[in-house]
Design goal:
The complex is a heterodimer of chains A (about 260) and B (about 250). Chain A is built from twelve helices and no strands. Chain B folds into two domains: about 140 residues, Rossmann fold (3-Layer(aba) Sandwich), CATH 3.40.50; about 80 residues, no CATH class. In chain B, helix 4 runs antiparallel to helix 5. The chains are: A mainly alpha (about 260), B alpha/beta (about 250).
Chain lengths: ~260, ~250
Amino acid sequence: MSTYEIEHQQFLRKKKREKRLILFSQIAIIVIFLVGWELLAKSHLVNTFLTSSPGNVISTFVSLHQTNGLYNHIWITVYETILSFTIATVIGIGVATILWWCPKVAKIVDPYLTVINSLPKVALGPLIIIWVGASINSIIFMALLISAIITIINIYNGFMTTDENFITLLKSFQAKKSQIFFKAVLPSNRLTFINSLKINISMSLIGVIMGELLVSKEGLGYLIMYGSQVFNIDLVITSVFLLGIVSYLMYYIITLIEKKLIKK
Amino acid sequence: MDTILKIDHLNKSYHDMKSVILAVEDVTLDIKEKEFISIVGPSGCGKSTILSILSNLEKKSGGNITFNKENCKLGYMLQKDSLFPWRTILENCLLGLEINQELTQENKERVVRLLETYGLKDFMDKYPDSLSGGMRQRVALIRTLAINPDILLLDEPFSALDYQTRLALSDDVYKIIKQEGKTAIMVTHDLAEAISLSDRIVVLTKRPAKVKKIYDIHLTDKSSPIHNRKCKEFSIYYDKIWRDLDVHL
């Protein structure tokens, strides 16, 4: 073996060790946290009525699973999120395209977009319930308010920062506006799309949970709200855990799509 | 030789809230078929504006532009190659044809042949990021030639490249343009480049750009731009034009 190879082997070993250390630490943190929590609860150092405990969370999870309500609640939240995500994406791309196409319209609506974007949408919650009604529609509407606006702004900004040189080049071929859009603006913004999908899915979920906290009789947001009203902290924490898993999975799916799209 | 393009009393002004800026004033110029003409002038004088107007990127404020040929097509080669990173080299070269909806099998084969002739065949299916700066600029030239233009407009086509690449590429581009029998109008700030490539050089004044002088370039050895630089007349032209430019810092 030459010295280069030995050196390379050492390099690989070092990288491997580093990777293992990181993974080990990550697992250790969660294990210590859960075990510590459980021990504190078991030894009555903390009041499980307020803090719950991993054991209680598991038994709550099992009982939810047995009464069949669990998957329905998860499904409802996921369904609402996917629905508002899809609508927000369509609205986002559509409106951003219109704004790119008609710069005058963009200039006119600019202050309104900024105000709506900076307004905390929860403030509109009560109004939405009164206008749209205490149903799933309110939840979707809430989620759309949050996710669609930010999607519009992100995609529009992406469109506007398309390399001027690309556009000049197409214009020098006497390209029409539609040709500029489809040949340069759309393809050069693939990254923008992925990034705004990522933001959009998180925003949709936030909107849906906020909506569920305000109205609704189903969904993880409802479980959290209901749990807190009847002071069932076990239920609240179980729901929060489930929500974390759901949101991670949805984000993960987007990164899978990203990998497919970014091949070239 | 016949005149292919007549620029007659061309004017161009820009407007902003405070004032009107005159960029091009009363430029009159005849361009002959298959001639290589360079436009030089102080930086920011409005050289590029003339090309932009010719290629319809900007509107003229006054004067006339007449093409002595029906459906005279222009090809514009810009300073930056602007190759689309998501398209292969071949797809990049076909862009102009796609836009003009002339993507016939025949035209496509012609572009492939151009790539072959000028040493880019092996890179046809590669993406631009695997090419060097000089090669990218060569691709940009072929992309411009793909639409089979009658007149090529070159806007500082070599200025983004390092010195060696620049010399070699200007040789290449010169050969390609002569072989394909194209008329070329080049804007540059590099006098040596202009003298070594051109049949004629138009010197413009400071903003607003007016025609100050037009030189017919006669060099004893006309084999290639790199050789041209060694001719004894080269430095004489250089001196004269340099004085015309009247550069003060």
